[in-house]
Amino acid sequence: MVAERFNKSDPLTDLVHAPLAHWASVRGDAVAIGDGSNSLTFAKLNAAVRQRAAALSQGQAPATLLVDDSATSIHQIIEFLAIISSGRCAAMADPDWPAELRETMRAQINQLTTTFSTLTELQPISPTSPFYIGFTSGSTGLPKGFRRHHRSWTESFRVCVDTFGPDAASGVLSPGRSSHSLFLFGMLLGIWTGAGVVIQEQFSASRALETLRQGHTPCLIAVPSQLILMIEWAARHTTAPIEATRLIMISGARWARHRTAELQALFPRARIIEFYGASETSFIAWMDAEVSTPLEVVGRPFGHVDIDIRDAKAPGSPGLIFVRSPMLFMDYMGAEADATAAIRDGDWLSVRDMGHLDAQGRLCLAGRQNRMLTTQGKNLFPEELESVLTAHPGIAKASVQGVADALRGMKVIAVVQPAQAYGGEFRAAELSAWCREKLEAYKAPKRYFVCDDWPLTASGKTDHAALALRLQNHLNDNKTKNPDMPCLLPLL
By 3-state DSSP, what share of the chain in percent is helix, strand and coil, each rounded to 5? Predict the structure, then answer.
């Protein structure tokens, strides 16, 4: 549908919200957004957005506004679109933030409004106007607020449709919170293309499968954990294959590639895509999911994306990955001192991931620079070992940690969460043998710990810092141990 109406020369598509009015006029009765219980047509969504935007302007609302995350997801999207269509910038808080953190981030947003624009200085909306502030984890303990302008996302929408074809411009199922940039992107993609989107207030594998079976959402955007839950629910209930799904786009974490055959069996007509990117960059590289592809490969660059590997010690060894594209973010909100912040060099940007380009021109991801460990005089990227551990049928999640060791420099320790569906038992020696089959011997963990109550960041990823604290607490002597911290169980 987007290919029929819009092209890259149409200025209407340079604004995230602008196509909504068009779809309201030509597809007014079609469903724009629904959550399984409630829905809005394009005409009704457009009317609600225009009414709310007018109220914001009449009330002289600040230039940057925090979306009320206590509202339903549909109303959050109405508010988001109203804010940006009024020329303002919408910030998406995480509903899991504690009250103290929420007030801290609200104060930063108020400061941003003072710094960048006052209510009397709102400029006409342009493709380079800021429209969105999302939040990602930071090393200071506070989330990093990243600002995007309209063109960075409209270019992302275009690249998505250009790369994956009409299925990317069909109805979308985006079953996650709007505070997660991946799911917000999926929601807005469905509205921008005019195909519509189905969302979920809270993820449910059974409801997601039923929605996909109905056929109104041929395109699914998901994180790996959601897909695994769908696979396992379908297996327990002997669910028939779902023929209506045509495109599955996976991001947010590394896909458990060894489970691709199960996913393909559940969705036999779907093209399964893995893509690599970041909140600050949008799309970087992509590939069709294949079991045989080496774990480190994340694919070839998207169109209009240039990649430069810097500071590698030798050809084929990891260096900092720098990206140049029209999809890069603007700046951070008060994160200048954060050691995990992206590095800018003119038009180039690095989110501090390290990797190399192989002989086929594919990007190979080693891991994040600040997580690299040195053990026995050699570098180890925890992400590589975590991928190998989670490929074991008995392991659901893994976090690789380094503990100071006089002999090795760093001792490699793995914290794992057992897979609930795994019927057998496993021991540390079995896991070490599994790792040595697939990696050099020095990368195999020296010790293992089990954690059942797995900590997650606000974006739903493993909280490696929290696990490091739990591990350190376990290893401390009784004088410094915190009895209130959740414990880890040694795996023998």
Answer: 35, 25, 40
| Backbone dihedral region for residue 205 (phi beyond 0: left; psi -120 to 50: alpha; all else: beta) | alpha
DSSP helix/strand/coil, 1 = coil
Take residue 343 and report the two structure tokens written for it: 């590095």
Answer for the pair 216, 198: CB distance below 8 angstroms, yes or no.
Answer: yes
Q: Is 11 a residue whose pLDDT tops 90? A: no
Q: Are strands 130-136 and 144-149 parallel, antiparallel or unpaired?
A: antiparallel
The domain 372-491 having CATH identifier 2.40.50.140: the answer here is no
pLDDT digits (tens, 9 = 90+) for 89-148: 999 988 888 888 888 888 888 877 665 554 445 678 999 999 999 998 765 567 889 999
The ranges assigned to domains in the chain are 2-366, 372-491
The topology (CATH level 3) of 2-366 is: Rossmann fold (3.40.50)
Residue with tokens 């009015």: 21
For the segment 173-185, what is each residue's pLDDT rounded down to a tens digit? Answer: 999 999 999 999 9
- Phi then psi dihedrals of residue 117, to 5 deg: -170, 140
Structure tokens, 12: 């209407």
Q: Measured between alpha carbons, how far is 22 from 5 in angstroms, rounded to an integer?
A: 10
